[in-house]
């Protein structure tokens, strides 16, 4: 197990939908960790390599093969991830976002989700996260670290988040149904 613990509860919304972060070690006991204890029904995986089939567990599994490399273009996954997470929240589902260690890729995706919420659905972020740093990216990372201390996106991912944050127009996802 990594220094962060197995799985971290990041936010629970009034409709009951909860977002969790973890590393891939949650696959060691899918029935207990994901299904029985947390009723997770949507999983977003940001890793390469073998992942077990979750269909037998009634879990919708989205796999994004990306390396934890500062030169990897994770930016291209922000909007698609947002649509999946938002759809799950609207359906009152519990969501797990993970990468290999639950430190960089998954945290980057969750920060991008919250940044997009600032533009499209501020009610999903403002009650939970306050701007305490120079950028929203830093403030959101502080919030996530208060729930998952090892959260640490690589420098290339942080730079992509800051570029994303500074864009002026809301993304098309604000106007699409998930």
Mean pLDDT: 89
| DSSP helical segment count | 5
CATH structural class: Alpha Beta
End-to-end separation in angstroms reads: 34 Å
Write a short abstract of this structure.
With 178 residues, this protein is of the alpha/beta class. The protein has helices at residues 30-36, 78-90, 105-120, 136-145, 155-166, and strands at residues 7-12, 18-22, 40-46, 60-64, 94-98.
What does this structure look like?
The protein is an alpha/beta fold. The chain has one domain: Protein tyrosine phosphatase superfamily (Protein-Tyrosine Phosphatase, Chain A). It is 33% helix and 16% strand. The longest helix is centred in the middle third of the chain and has 16 residues, at 105-120. Strands 1-2-5-3-4 form a 5-stranded mixed beta sheet, with helices on both faces. It has helices spanning 30-36, 78-90, 105-120, 136-145, 155-166; strands spanning 7-12, 18-22, 40-46, 60-64, 94-98.
């Amino acid at each position: 197990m990594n220094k962060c613990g197995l799985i971290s509860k990041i936010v629970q919304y009034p409709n009951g939908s909860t977002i969790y972060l973890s590393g891939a070690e949650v696959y060691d006991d899918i029935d207990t960790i994901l299904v029985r204890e947390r009723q997770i029904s949507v999983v977003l995986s940001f890793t390469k390599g073998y992942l077990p089939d979750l269909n037998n567990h009634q879990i919708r599994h989205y796999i994004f093969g990306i390396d934890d490399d500062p030169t990897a273009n994770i930016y291209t996954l922000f909007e698609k991830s947002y649509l999946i997470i938002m759809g799950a929240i609207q359906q009152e589902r519990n969501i797990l976002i993970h990468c290999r260690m639950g430190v960089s890729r998954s945290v980057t995706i969750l920060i991008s989700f919250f940044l997009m919420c600032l533009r499209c659905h501020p009610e999903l972020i403002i009650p939970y996260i306050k701007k305490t740093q120079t950028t929203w990216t830093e403030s959101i990372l502080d919030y996530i670290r208060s729930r998952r201390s090892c959260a640490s996106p690589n420098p290339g991912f942080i730079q992509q988040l800051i570029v994303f944050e500074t864009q002026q127009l809301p993304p098309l996802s604000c106007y699409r149904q998930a």
